Amino acid sequence: MKTDVAADFGAFGEEFFRNPHPVYAELRARGPVHRVRVPEGAEAWLVVGYEACKDALTDPALSKNWENASPDLPLARLSAGHNLLSSDPPDHTRLRKLVSREFTPRRVETLQPRVAALTGALLDAMLATPDGRADLVEALAFPLAIGIIGELLGVPSLDRGSFRTWAEQALSSPDRDTRRAATGAMTAYLTGMIDEKRGRPGDDLISALIRTTDEDGDRLSADELIGMSWLLLVTGFETTVNLIASGVLALLRHSDQLEALRADLGLIGNAVEEVLRHESPVETTTYRFTTGPVTIGGVTVPGGGELVLIALADAGRDAARFPDPNRFDIRRATGGHLSFGHGIHYCLGAPLARLQAATAITALLERCPDLALDQDPASLPWRQGLLIRGPRRLPVRWRGRLAADSHPGHGSDSPHHWCSHHHDRETLPPSVPRSAK
């Protein structure tokens, strides 16, 4: 029997997408599982709290296979083709084994010089702007993330803008027809690209996935190649864009942590983990469906293909697991956060996302010692939907320039602290002013 809806996320405004944590905390205080309505209009069971989320992530009664979804759910499938996020064991085990043969830590390690070089080139272009202002999403986070995953997979650079539009619509649009159209467009493009690579293979990951076979001769089918290409491309840049943007925003809003990181850039690895915990770029998991009654935190969710969402963003803010969870602290012990998932569906691309975020944030802080927000954070536009979370835009300024309506008495006549171009790294000013909270 269905219970009353505890929260209608489609009725919430911009403030919820900007800061959903108070809503999740209120639900968590009332229990670990709640009936909710998602922005797409479907009703779902939302799991909150660290322990309940961790248990749900590994519960075999919660299926990722869309064939187990109730036909009454008014939902559009999130991805093209068949992939790791739409399969259960043993099919999932087989797919992950095949993909893991090519998407290895060694392959990710070889990307480090390219990540550093592209980051440097993007910062060169950004810092050359005459007014000392930029949108960090457009200038750094997006082109870095889409550029690296595009090169890795062998997607021509001129097509990456289309992928961004398709991905945002497929993952965030509340309109089912828009989501279906975006998924269809991406499927058609990937089909053509894979056919082309079969005839003219390269040294990219998609070509490798076409060639790869297991010891027993098993290989990815045409539909699985489309699905895995979609998964690697979309999750490969969406998560990273929002991790970088949310990370920079968190640092600029917490000047003590920004100064601590500037003083010791060796903390960057743990700082990235704290961003993942504090501002998870994946707010709730992709869809799971009940294959039978399942009890989570003492609450029984009915079988029959009911939709279940797991709030990863709330798991990182649970005081039972992380003391003083709303405090952003780059020295915190963050081990065990769930922002990349847990269990068999743990994110395959986590090392690449971490590499890009650490490289981008480090280079940005090294080359721009007076970086500051150029817009009130309370008015920043955020991604809609419950899956991907992060600011759509992140206006920043440097060279001492201030927004016209902020910090009275500190206008454009203030002393300038110049951001460094590539050749100026040895001449940075010794003093680093405090950034705006």
Automatic annotation (TrEMBL):
Alphabetized Pfam families for the sequence: p450
SUPFAM superfamilies named among the record's database cross-references: Cytochrome P450
Disordered: region residues: 405-437
PROSITE patterns (UniProt xref): CYTOCHROME_P450 (PS00086)
Keywords attached to this entry: Heme, Iron, Metal-binding, Monooxygenase, Oxidoreductase
Compositional bias of kind Basic and acidic residues: 405-427
PANTHER family in alphabetical order: CYTOCHROME P450 YJIB-RELATED (PTHR46696:SF1), P450, PUTATIVE (EUROFUNG)-RELATED (PTHR46696)
Family recorded in the similarity comment: Belongs to the cytochrome P450 family.
Protein name per the record: Cytochrome P450
